[in-house]
Model the fold of this input.
Amino acid sequence: MKTTKFSLFRNIKFEYKITLSYLLFGLLWILFSDKALDLLANDDSLLTQLQTYKGAFFILTTSVFLYFFVKRHMYSLKLTETKLLESESHYKALFNNNHSVIILINPENARIEDANPAACAYYGWTHAELCNMKVYDFNISDLETVKVRLHAVVTEELNHLFVKHRLANGEIRDVEVFSNPIRIRNKNLIYSSIHDITEQRNAESELRKLSKAVEQSPVGICITNPAGMIEYVNPKVIELTGFSAEELMNENTRIFSSGEKPNQEYTKLWQTIQSGNVWSGEFHNRKKNGELYWEAATISPIFNTAGAISHFLAIKEDITDRKRAEIALNESEELLRKFASHLQNVREEEKVALSREIHDDLGQTLVALKIDMGLLKNKIIKFNTTNDPKDISQGFDDIVNLIDKTIKTARRIMSGLRPELLEMNGFSAAATSYLTEFENRHRIGCEFISDISGIEMNPQQSLVFFRILQESLNNIAKHSKAKTVKVYLRSENNKIILEVIDNGVGFDKNNSGRQDSYGMLGMKERAVLLKGNLEIESEIGKGSRVRVEIPHII
Done:
């Protein structure tokens, strides 16, 4: 109760305090001063003297009282003023040094009373210009809307809103405004803190576009955390796999696995993306209903602002139809390859059969004819009595020489069809013999260099190399005008390599009109049948180079 009374007294204005105190003291002095003098003096003369001093004492006492009372009040006023100045200094510092845009608005006329430097820099007007404006001068809302909003702020019905403001250069910006009523120097104002959110709105707009694009993307998009747990899938993934979004949330991506991919490949995949790199490849996955499908996937890491991996983004594309077509195409190619290989074998078998027929029939017949001609020559010379024996002998010798040439031609044809050395001693011996014969026939220097000692070729490889060597030398003889030919045979990286290099005139390999283009195609087909590769390099005036490599399979 005492505290309440004291508090009420303290809240009374200073002038009322002095008046009340003086009236109260004067009233008490009038009521009790005479009684106090009667108690102090019984002598009338002394009492009269004290009565004389009573007025002076009253003046002195009240003066001292008023002095201390006023002094205390002045001290209180000074202390209050100091605190007020200090508070205003803090307010000014906070107001002027604040990086946020702050303006003080008079709600009665919407005029700007004050603006901090950040506001001037943001809007592009000076402090004087800004403080001479009204809110609706840069708020693109209509006047009535602005008035309604200011009134709502004053009544504390509204303190947060989003609006558009126009800057001094005419640019329109999206802003977020926080407003509160405030009283400064006996004036009711509105304190507004303004934050530019244009970039945020633009980013949100772009994000909405991106989100729409992701949702409508024709390829599947899946986002996982660094542990591979699914956090988002777009509708295409749901359509592709048959799982619902709820079934896939917080599941490991191995939920799609068919189990056919080796664990080593998954380990390599994770090592790639966890090191910050992009992985691309194919999966043979399983749908919810157990159906297998093929997908091409590209998995990329997503980094946070600190540079650490926060998520992984997987882009999935259904390639089942393409893979089936590829498998069918591969099967068709394999069938064609087998068929071509079969035709090649049939041709070679026909050549062997033809060579055997030439050897067994024509060759033996020619040898027998040569023997018979020798016997007939002896008989005719022995029983001849009319003609010159020398003429008869020369005639028979000419016939025998012709038969010898025919036998050699038959042997050369048989060697071309199926060299005996190729079957008996292998490619190196057959190549050496063929190069010697080629050198003698065409007068072109030949050199055979081989470093595959200890490596044996199977009959198919030997035959392919020999046929390519034959075709290469045949082209050199027809077109190159070469003086020398070098043939290299070596082994590299489990492959056998044959190179035929000449120093002839060369040719333009892009010229499809070359008469030997079919021979080149034949060489390439032979190499492809053994899963090999053939390259032909040439420049006009710089000779040519044929290089064939075939996997070494025994």
About this structure: The two ends are 116 Å apart (CA to CA). The first strand starts at residue 101 and ends at 106. Residues 319-418 form one domain. The chain has five domains: 13-92, 98-201, 217-318, 319-418, 425-551.
